[in-house]
Structure prediction request, 376 residues.
Amino acid sequence: MDTARLQELRHPKDMDMRDALQFRCQSDLLFKLQNCNLSENDLETTGMALMTCRHYSYLEDRKFTIVNVKQCDPNLLGVISDLVMENEKTDVCVAFCVQLNPDENRNSMIKFSVRSCVSDARADYIAAFLAKGIGGGGGHPRKSGGTLRDGVLAKIHESEFSDTYGFKDKIHHLMFQRLQSYMKPPKSYYAGEKAPKGDEFYPEITELFQTGKIYQKNRMPIGYVKASDLYETGTQICVRMLEGDITFVVEEDTYLMLGIDAEVYQNKEKNFKKNNDLSDAAYCFTGEYPPRVIWTQSDSKDLKELTQYAKTCIPKEGARIRAKQLDCRVKIIPDWSEDGLLGEPSDWIVVREDNIRDFYIIKNNIFVRSYTLVEE
Prediction:
């Protein structure tokens, strides 16, 4: 139900299943399966929710919608959110419902679904932000969800709401407050050759470069593949990994790096050889989903799993950075990506000690395992 007729799936293994079904199922049976989504009760619930949703505008170009849905199958929240996103007044939608627990000795919970069509307000980050301290949330950059625990919610926020609010109104008000806070546009910076020069360069990055704490990258084995060994120069390829799909253009000096969580990112040969020692050890993949090429511009059927071709390298000890943890949302746009890298509070902004124009975002869960503070 919550996959837009199997067209939009989050986990890469689900995407692989859908792609396989396209060729192995009878097309009429697959089409029927894609349309078996809602019962009559679901249709009634959806209609009532759409009639009562509330639209909000923030900073003129930031529009979000909150939908209060009666108790239902949590998957229906995703269907309702998808419908609301068709509206021109909505960039972000949150649909929620209260799941009452028939056991009076156990707390009920609030289920919610998040949708986003703007790159600097990712649905998975919004879900985590909405649930911070009172539940849990996450998922896909465009489609996510989560749960709030009403017992924790009542204790933390009891003093914030008037007694005149009903329980659902309190939840709606909380969603509104947190969305309004989150929807402030992130600070944006251009890195590399795109960064401003001279006096126009960013003072915050200059300060980090001059006074930030120094960290040394741990010498942990990671993987690499020289892209031109797999595909012709100039070929556009799409790589699927656990974090999502990402597109690269193969150049003669393009290296695809496989990080400690098998996240894939691009490196140029000059920087690769400068900052890494090659290893004779075989590359060992231990993650959940091995990254692989799922599409090429040349329509080649030679789609490759990168871990089968990866070799091992170890970062050199000289690769040091200055870093600080973010307390707000930041977007950095490097030379190789128009979409940019989005950092959330608790992630890290870092700048290479030997190049002030080379700065980027590292996710907190990767940073704490990859870097060690250098004692001065």
